[in-house]
Amino acid sequence: MDVEFTQEQLSEVTRLQRLYPDRGGALLPVLHLAQEVFGYISEDVEKYVGTLFDLGPAHVHEVVTFYTMYFRRPRGRHVLSVCHNLSCHLMGAQEIIAHLTSRLGIELGQTTDDGRITLLTVECLCACEMAPMLQVDDRYEGPLTIEKIERLVDRLA
Amino acid sequence: MSPAATEKVLTRNFGRPDSHTLKAYLETGGYTALPKALTMEPPAIIDAVKRSNLRGLGGAGFPTGTKWSFIPKGHTGPVYLVINADEGEPGTFKDRYLLERDPHALIEGMLIAARAIGSTLAFVYIRGEYVESWRHVSAAVGEAYDAGYLGRGLDVVVHRGAGAYICGEETGLISSLEGKKGWPKLKPPFPAIKGAFGAPTIVNNVETICHVPHIINRGAEWFASLGTKTQGGTRMYSVSGRVTRPGVYETSVAVTLRQLIYEYAGGVTGNGRLKAVVPGGSSAAILTADEIDVTMDVDGLKAAGTMAGSAGVIVLDETVSIPEALMVVARFYAHESCGQCTPCRESTGWIYEMTRRIVVGRGRKADLDTILDVARRGAGTTICAFYDGAVGPYISYIEKFRAEFESLIPK
């Protein structure tokens, strides 16, 4: 994979860096951008982003691995993040998770063979009023039922 | 005042589908506190907020005006205002409603707060998963620039986090805002002395700041009168779990937990029996069904041996296994410990393992006392309050429901 931003993306990097008293503040936003562009944060991406900040790869690696939203391996075209914290647990998250793993034929943390869906569990997404709930890509969905999940999974291309 | 009769302040426009727009905000009296604040000297604004008894609504409950007054007098360099929109406390979802439905209230509050503390650059740190919130706040900030509210004395940067509960802790948030992993920092120095990028920084919760325009507009005394002696105002309670109507309810901080569950949230699901309640997000000690006649203000819940925290109320009914609930909560703390301090990193991991083996029927006789011992020894020994927040549930779940745990442990 060629790891390099386009000119336009580089201008966005510069714009982000200028927002902060120290350009280092833009590291998280630039990593979000990198993930959007390259799909996930490989070691090459870490090294490349480091060069944009004059930071060593160790610093970037430390940041990438600290947060849950940076993927270090290719992910599916869609990511389902099922909340398994207390309120969702009380409202049946376990059944939702069991149904999804068997419906998709994968374990938690895995991606379907066709590259369509990555399935994860996550801690509280702070939408407990819609428990049990999940995040599908950018969107929150809940309260979930088995029927709703079926429809949701069918709709994902 | 009867809490049921309390007017809605923060949530009054939530019924409007366009409540997040500048147009709707202006039509409902928005940006009218700002001109008043601009005629007030900063110390007068701080004084009004002090007299209002506004207390931080993110978790710690610290008096907001007092926090603002900690910025060193005569400081000449930059001062930063940082809004903590890294909502993450399990059971809490009220800031999401404010960010999505009334972002201009936040911006007006920030303009006033920034004047009070002498800041010209502010950040809104939004948790990475809140994509919708981020879009709405970014759009509102754009509108506020176009309308000239921002860009003339105050600039606002909307910043996205990347998934880490610890970044809701104010010094962890600052580390993260600086582009580092979100490790909390030793205090002192407190952020008001040396915070983001080395400059004096005030970190305030979203809901806290949204109250500020109303305090300026309607007076500190009015705000104070809505609450208790030591805490003014209303606040937004997130109610979830085994209740008929989960949701956000804004009411006086003098409301009781019983009222919240039975009058606001419609009571226990299927008219079931209440077993226990977590009153202030998962870090708050659990209360039994007999302990719900307490007021929901900071000091009321403190007196009851728990805390108001982020006002996330999680209701557990008779169908719920308390050991299983503790296992779920312990898994969360094990996952979210940032790993910096040994007592927290090790205890959260091992305590999760022990609760898990108890739940699956492989617990050992000494396990419960070991958990309690480890929890008590570690409390207060770490850089931030995260571990103390984990200790609250460890100890209270086991002490209040010990027989239920013991029944799972093989004889």
Report the principal-axis shape of chain A. elongated
Report strand order across the widest sheet of chain A.
Answer: 2-1-3-4
Q: What letter string, H or E per element, gives the SSE order of chain B? A: HHHHEHHEHEHEHHEEHEEHEHHHHH
Average pLDDT metric of chain B:
97
User: What string, H for helix and E for strand, traces the elements of chain A in order?
Assistant: HHHHEHHEEEH
Strand content of chain A: 5-15%
Evaluate the radius of gyration of chain B.
Answer: 21 Å
State the secondary-structure class of chain B: alpha/beta
**Biggest β-sheet description of chain A:** 4 strands, mixed
Rounded mean pLDDT of chain A is: 97
CATH superfamily of the largest domain in chain B, by name, is NADH-ubiquinone oxidoreductase 51kDa subunit
Structure description:
The complex is a heterodimer of chains A (157) and B (411). By secondary structure, chain A is α+β, with helices and mostly antiparallel strands. Helix content of chain A is 46%, strand content 11%. Chain A has seven helices and four strands. In chain A, strands 2-1-3-4 form a four-stranded mixed sheet, covered by helices on one side. In chain A, helix 1 (7-18) packs antiparallel against helix 2 (27-38), helix 2 (27-38) packs across helix 3 and helix 3 (43-53) crosses helix 4. Chain A is elongated and about 50 Å long. The two termini of chain A are 24 Å apart. The mean pLDDT of chain A is 97. The longest helix of chain B is centred in the C-terminal third of the chain and has 18 residues, at 342-359. Chain B is α/β, with parallel strands linked by helices and 411 residues long. Chain B has a five-stranded mixed sheet, covered by helices on one side. Chain B has a four-stranded parallel sheet with strand order 3-2-1-4, sandwiched between helices. In chain B, a hairpin with a 5-residue loop joins strand 5 (234-241) and strand 6. The model of chain B has no long low-confidence stretch (mean pLDDT 97). Chain B folds into three domains: 3-225, Rossmann fold, CATH 3.40.50; 234-317, Ubiquitin-like (UB roll); 322-406, de novo design (two linked rop proteins), CATH 1.20.1440.230. In chain B, helix 13 (322-336) packs antiparallel against helix 16. Chain B contains 17 helices and nine strands. Chain B is globular and about 70 Å long. At the A-B interface, helix 2, helix 4 and helix 5 of A face strand 3, strand 5, strand 9 and helix 13 of B.
